[in-house]
């Protein structure tokens, strides 16, 4: 293992550790009644998708790559391939959650600025 691989793994583990802040955002919104607004629901969605990426995808990538290097002759039931598919599923779920949340928050802010006196337009 060369220096670049070690630095790559260290940065992934640091990113996974820092994504715990997203869990705190989710806990705060759940715990305090004043934070339970429709706009904060989109922030929770963004925090959830980021935490899926940081807590599942990054560590599992390092673990799976450390355990096994893929080979095209491997069986479909190889644990490495099943873990890789689960990691890809979580990666896709995290990306789409991010994109959807950012798009909805952007649209909500657009409606708030464009139609400031029409309350029914807001989420």
Any overview of this molecule?
This protein is mainly alpha-helical and 123 residues long. The protein has one domain (3-121). 76% of the residues lie in helices and 0% in strands. The longest helix is centred in the last third of the chain and has 36 residues, at 79-114. It starts with a helix and ends in a 9-residue tail after the last helix. The model has no long low-confidence stretch (mean pLDDT 77).
Question: What topology emerges from the helices and strands here?
Answer:
Layout: H1 3-18, H2 20-31, H3 38-67, H4 79-114
Helix pairs in contact: 1-3, 2-3, 3-4
Order of helices and strands: HHHH
Percent helix: over 70%
The helix-and-strand class reads: mainly alpha
**Number of DSSP strand runs:** 0
- Low-confidence runs: none
- Largest sheet composition: none
Coarse shape: elongated
Note the beta-strand portion.
under 5%
Domain count: 1
Overall average residue pLDDT: 77
> In angstroms, what separates the terminal alpha carbons?
51 Å
Rg is 19 Å
Please count the helical segments. 4
Features:
123 residues; mainly alpha; 76% helix
Please summarize what this structure is:
The chain is 76% helix and 0% strand. The protein is mostly helical and 123 residues long.
């Amino acid at each position: 293992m060369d220096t670049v691989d070690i630095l790559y793994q260290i940065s992934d583990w640091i990113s996974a550790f820092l994504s715990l802040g997203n869990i705190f955002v989710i806990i705060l919104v759940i715990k305090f009644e004043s934070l339970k607004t429709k706009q904060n629901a989109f922030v929770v969605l963004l925090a959830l998708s980021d935490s899926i990426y940081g807590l599942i995808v990054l560590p599992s990538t390092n673990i799976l790559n450390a355990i096994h290097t893929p080979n095209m002759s491997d069986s479909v039931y190889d644990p490495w391939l099943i873990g890789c598919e689960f990691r890809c599923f979580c990666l896709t779920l995290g990306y789409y959650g991010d994109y959807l949340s950012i798009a909805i928050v952007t649209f909500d802010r657009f409606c708030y600025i464009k139609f400031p006196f029409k309350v029914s337009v807001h989420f």
